[in-house]
Design a protein that fits this description.
- This protein has 190 residues and is an alpha/beta fold.
- It is 39% helix and 26% strand.
- The chain contains seven helices and eight strands; from the N terminus they run αββααβαβββαβαβα.
- The strands form two sheets. It has a six-stranded mixed β-sheet, with helices on both faces.
- α1 packs across α3 and α3 packs across α4.
- The termini are far apart.
């Protein structure tokens, strides 16, 4: 495939994913967010990341977003990050490349191997922290902290949607590069 065809294909995937997000994931009405703040809308991206049509698009679009970064594993705090990481793993495999995924538990297990991070070891590896939607940035920051404790080098944080409510500033303060696919303007929420 030519570079123009690849660019067109990714742009098409990005446009289609945005259409699906707008149709299925944006819920209008007063809601209380995990941060405790109230909002007039909710972006429920699990409706997208677990959708049979949208999930493969998530993987392709997210890989395109971070194609210039060097990492070999992707993951984040369960539950929002899990399907994003898995979508990226599958999209990478479909493109003939290997990418491992990992899951960061909210707390270490009290039984079995008592691991906080599940999946292939990330010790000594370069990893990308992902999330479906960033509001305060607390979940990706917690995942980045856990990944560093496990001996990984965190190269960046990437999300599908940014709510423009402080996450970018928190990531910058923590010295983490931050990228997102859609902002409020693109989602029709600004």
């Amino acid at each position: 495939m030519t570079d123009t065809a690849v660019t067109t294909d990714v742009n098409s995937a990005r446009g289609r994913l945005l259409d699906i997000v707008k149709a299925k994931a944006i819920v209008h009405g007063r809601v209380t967010l995990s941060s405790g703040k109230e909002a007039d809308y909710y972006v429920d991206l699990r409706r997208i990341t677990l959708d049979g049509e949208a999930s493969p698009l998530v993987g392709r679009v997210m890989l395109d977003l971070v194609e210039d970064l060097d990492f070999d594993a992707v993951g984040g705090l369960t539950l929002g990050a899990d399907p994003v990481a898995t979508s990226m793993l599958h999209a990478s495999a479909a493109a003939g490349r290997r990418l491992d995924a990992f899951v960061v538990r909210k707390a270490g297990k009290a039984h079995g191997l008592q691991q906080r991070i599940e999946g292939p070891s990330i010790e000594g590896r370069r990893v990308l922290i992902v999330e479906d939607t960033s509001t305060t940035g607390a979940s990706p920051l917690e995942a980045a902290h856990a990944a560093r404790e496990a001996g990984a080098e965190v190269v960046a944080v990437a999300t599908i949607a940014d709510r423009a409510t402080g996450a970018a500033e928190k990531f910058a303060d923590a010295g983490l590069e931050y990228r997102f696919v859609y902002g409020l303007q693109e989602l029709g929420l600004a």
